[in-house]
Structure formats: C-alpha cells, structure tokens
C-alpha cells in the first residue's frame, strides 16, 4: 500500500519494516482528511503484511489507533464488523476503547451493537486501564486521558434510545461498587441520556443485520479446490496420518481454526467448545456419517497432537471417526492458509492476531459457507449443513463405499491370478471339483499370457492412482516387485516357485493398500522397528571404518 504526504513528494510503502510512527502519521493524515477513510480498511485485516513480525501488543496499539480514527472520519459500513469483533473478543482496554469510539462514527445508531458493548464491559471490567488517542505514543503521565470502560459507556449514551434494552444491566452497574468514580459517572450519564431520548425506535426493522457482514455463502457448484491440497497429509490429535482428501471430501465438512496459545477466550477457546458441541449435536441426530467436523490449528509447529487433544478435551470435545483435530507440516500449512484465505498474522512463528474462522465445505471440499469474526450458533450452522447434505447427488457413492470399491478393485484381480488354472493339471483338478470328470485336460493356452499382463498392468495403475488417497507408493512398489517376479520367473522362465512368490507380493501390495491409513502407519512402524537394530549396527560399522 502507498500514500503520499501533503507535499506529494514522500512516498511511503507500508510493510513489516514500516515503523509504528510512520503508520500512526498516516492515520493522523486520514483523520484530518475524512474522505480518505477507506484507505484504513486494508490495515484492519489480520493477514496484512504490515503486521508480519510484530508483537501482539504492537498489533493491538496499531489496530486500536486505527479504529479510534473512525470516530472523526466516520465509520465505513465495511469496518463495522471489525469494531464489533474487537468489542466482543478482546480483553485489551486500549483496543476496546478504540472500537467503542469507532461505533460512534456510524452514520446511524443501530440497536444490534448493544450486545457487543455489554460483552466488552464483561471483558475488561476488572482489566480496565487509562488510554489516550490524542497521540500514538504519549509520554505519561498525561492529563487528558480516558479508560476503556468510560469509552464503552459513552457509546451507550451516544446510542440513546437505540440502547433501551441495555437499561436493566446499566442500572445494575450503577449500583456496583467495583467501578471507579469516573466510570460510574459515565454509567449514570448513559442511563439519563437513554431514558431521556424521545426518539421512538422500531426494533423490528432497520435493514440487514450488521452480523451478516461476517457471513458469506457461495453458489452451489461454484468455487474450486487446489489440486495440490488433495495431496497433503494431516496429523490428527492421536498422531495418525490422514490424507486431506480422505477426510475433507466425500461428504460436507465443518472446519474451525484455532491454536492452543490463544489468550482470547471468546476466540479459540469458545470456537473449540462450540465445534465440540456441534459434533455432539450431529451425533444425537445420527448425522455423524453424513457430515465431518474438523479443528485445524494455526500453530502447527507448537501444537503437537498431544497438546491439541488435551486442549480440545478440556473443552469437552469427544473425538470420533467423523470429528478430529489436525495439524499440518509448515510447508503444507501455507497451502492450507491460501485455500481458506485465513486472516491470521505472525510474529516470527507465533500468532500475533487472528479472526474467528469457521467454514462449511461441500462434498467436493469446496468452501460453501464462511462464518467469520462473530461467533456462530448451533442453530445457525445446522440449517446450512442440511442444505449441503441435500446437494449430494442421489447417485453419489459415500466415501466409505467408494473406499471399499477401490480396495476391491485392487484385491480382486490378484486373487483371480492366484486361483486361475495355470497348467493342464490345474484344469483337470478344477473340472473334477465341479463334477466334470472324464473330460480331457485343457492345454495351457498362450492367450492367457497377454491377459495376465493386461490385468497386472490395470492392477498396478489402480494402486498408483490411489497413492494419495490411501497409503502412498509402498503398496504400489510391493506389487511391482510381485508383478516382475510373476512375469519373469513364472511366465518367462516357467519357475513355479517364482509364480507363487510373485502372486504373494501382488496380494501383499493390494492388502497394504486396503488397510486404513492409521493401521498402515502402525504396520510400517513395526517393520521399521524390526530392521532398526540392523541399520544402526551398519551405520556404526561404517563410522568405525571411515
């Protein structure tokens, strides 16, 4: 982003190396020129490059100062959701004060901001602090200061009649003894202003709810999924490896993002709790086989499986085959971040800020519903899930049935090779088994050779095609070894032992492919543990010789 100072000579680029003072100077410039207020909107996004590498407190100072400027410039409709989110989610007196001031920049008061102001009081009631927006970095002590709670109650007064529903709670606060004198005066002033406002407010009207600014729904069939995303392998809360395509495709999925080091209880902690309750609700109505639910961490380096599992279970999450929590490798995480357009910033490897993010995917893994910034309710999301389930084509095979079908395709042909008669004696034995005694032996037909070769080729192609959805390339290479042994030793050199060894390896490859990913990982670990002593011994021997 670029901007010019009044002299039109100095060009400033906003990025991670831009000083706080330069950013604050730009905000002051916009404050003096309200027609430029929309230039502040990109700076509110958590993923803006401006916040890269900055500490959490620095991000809070910048966001609070930007939000407070909207009281003077007027609040653009697109910025309202940012102010409401910070009122509801943060425990920073500075940021809440800035958000409360931003609300006072609205063109028209709206009663739906009242719950967010009340939640802000709860958030900082015992964490209030002195703040000022006269300058970005004031030298304390200053005489002209305010507090987070004072700014919130001033906004109640600004709402006037639109804040009538807050009167009972405000009167309780006025009788409390834990507020400072100046704050109590603001509470009393707000009550008097609201009760004395003669305007009649129709609370059933007033156009679209500002909550909807954090909701988005795409048209069925629209959107795409990055093909590379299907190839990534995720690690669940138990440490099991799960391919993205095996969990996020085949049926609708609810995906919520979080990280365990988050200190905003109305963000990650509440999101995880809500997602866990949603999974239970789906189980109660027998929808667990039609919908998957997932939690994905923003912090894959720190959030190891055990840490994720404990964090979620302390928030009463009960994991199952259809409800899992995941982390991905740092390299794959960038792909995931791009796909979901995640609004999250980092100070080096630590999250410094993020929004509330939950997404609903259709059966192809495409994003259909976006629920961000404002926490969602179970009722709100249940209807959307129902619509996504109905969108699955009537002839669409379920994910489980599809997996079974793929496994059968890769196992059936090796079995046919194993039991198909391969010599005159075998043909005679088969005929006798079916009661057709007395028939002449059928000679071994040369046309069976190309049939076997074709079938083996099809089997190998199916295994290679399923490498990203099943268990990687190991089953494929095992079957390649078996096919080579069968064709060279069995058919070409006519060695019966080679024939049977080849068949065993082909069958083994198909069986490995049919195993669930978690069982395959366990088997792989067991095999590695068997050969680990030999490998270690060889390495030690190699070191001594060198």
What does it look like?
The protein is α+β, with helices and mostly antiparallel strands. It folds into three domains: 203 residues; 168 residues, Glutaredoxin, CATH 3.40.30; 117 residues, no CATH class. Helices cover 50% and strands 10% of the residues. Strands 5-14-13-8-9-10-6-7 form an eight-stranded mixed beta sheet, with helices on both faces. The protein has a two-stranded antiparallel ribbon with strand order 1-2. A two-stranded antiparallel sheet has the order 3-4. Helix 5 packs antiparallel against helix 6, helix 6 packs parallel to helix 8 and helix 7 packs antiparallel against helix 8. It is elongated. About 9% of the residues have low confidence.
SSE order and pairing:
Blueprint: E1 2-4, E2 11-13, H1 20-32, H2 56-73, H3 80-89, H4 93-103, H5 114-124, E3 130-131, E4 146-147, H6 148-159, H7 167-174, H8 181-196, E5 215-217, E6 233-236, E7 241-243, H9 244-248, E8 253-258, H10 265-284, E9 292-297, H11 305-313, E10 323-327, H12 330-340, E11 344-347, E12 350-354, E13 357-361, E14 367-372, H13 378-390, H14 399-419, H15 424-433, H16 448-465, H17 474-492, H18 496-514, H19 517-545
Parallel strand pairs: 8-9, 9-10
Antiparallel strand pairs: 1-2, 3-4, 5-14, 6-7, 6-10, 8-13, 11-12, 13-14
List keywords for this structure.
two-stranded antiparallel ribbon; about 550 residues; elongated; alpha+beta; 19 helices
């Amino acid at each position: 982003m670029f901007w010019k100072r009044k002299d039109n000579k100095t060009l400033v680029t906003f990025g991670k190396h831009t000083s706080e003072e330069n950013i604050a100077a730009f905000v002051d410039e916009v404050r003096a020129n309200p027609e430029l207020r929309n230039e502040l909107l990109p700076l509110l996004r958590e993923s803006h490059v401006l916040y890269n590498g900055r500490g959490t407190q620095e991000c809070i100072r910048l966001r609070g100062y930007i939000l407070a400027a909207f009281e003077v410039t007027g609040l653009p409709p697109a910025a309202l959701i940012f102010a409401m989110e910070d009122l509801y989610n943060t425990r920073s007196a500075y940021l809440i004060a800035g958000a409360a001031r931003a609300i006072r920049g609205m063109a028209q008061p709206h009663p739906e901001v009242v719950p967010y102001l009340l939640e802000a009081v709860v958030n900082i009631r015992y964490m209030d602090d002195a703040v000022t927006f006269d300058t970005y970095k004031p030298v304390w002590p200053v005489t002209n200061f305010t507090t987070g709670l004072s700014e919130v109650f001033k906004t109640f007064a600004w709402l006037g009649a639109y804040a009538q529903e807050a009167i009972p709670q405000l009167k309780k606060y006025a009788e409390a003894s834990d507020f400072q004198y100046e704050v109590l005066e603001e509470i009393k002033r707000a009550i008097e202003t609201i009760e004395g406002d003669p305007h009649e407010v129709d609370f059933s009207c007033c156009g679209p709810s500002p909550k909807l600014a954090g909701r988005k729904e795409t048209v069925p069939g629209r959107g795409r999924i990055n093909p590379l995303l299907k190839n990534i392998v995720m690690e669940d809360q138990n440490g099991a490896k799960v391919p993205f395509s095996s969990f996020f495709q085949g049926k609708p999925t609810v995906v919520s993002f979080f990280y365990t080091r988050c200190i905003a209880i109305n963000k990650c902690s509440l999101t995880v709790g809500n997602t866990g309750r949603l999974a239970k609700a789906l189980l109660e109505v027998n929808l667990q086989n039609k919908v998957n639910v997932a939690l994905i961490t923003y912090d894959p380096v720190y959030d190891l499986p055990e840490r994720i599992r404990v964090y979620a279970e302390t928030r009463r999450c009960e994991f199952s085959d259809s409800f899992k929590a995941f982390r991905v490798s740092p390299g794959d995480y960038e792909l995931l971040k791009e796909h979901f357009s995640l609004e999250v910033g980092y100070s080096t490897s630590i999250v410094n800020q993020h929004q509330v993010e939950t997404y609903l995917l259709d059966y192809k893994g495409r994003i259909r519903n976006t629920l961000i910034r404002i926490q969602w309710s179970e009722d709100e999301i249940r209807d959307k899930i129902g619509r996504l389930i109905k969108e699955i084509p009537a002839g669409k095979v379920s994910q489980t049935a599809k997996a079974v079908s793929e496994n059968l395709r890769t196992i059936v042909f090796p079995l046919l090779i194993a039991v198909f008669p391969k010599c005159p004696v075998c043909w005679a034995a088969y005929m006798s088994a079916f009661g057709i005694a007395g028939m002449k032996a059928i000679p071994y037909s040369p046309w069976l050779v190309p049939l076997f070769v074709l079938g083996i080729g099809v089997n190998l192609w199916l295994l290679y095609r399923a490498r990203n959805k099943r268990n990687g390339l190991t089953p494929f290479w095992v079957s390649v070894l078996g096919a080579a042994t069968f064709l060279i030793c069995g058919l070409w050199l006519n060695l019966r032992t080679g024939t049977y060894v080849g068949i065993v390896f082909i069958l083994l490859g198909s069986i490995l492919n049919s195993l669930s990913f978690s069982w395959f990982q366990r088997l792989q670990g067991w095999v590695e543990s068997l050969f680990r002593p030999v490998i270690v011994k060889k390495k030690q021997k190699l070191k001594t010789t060198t």
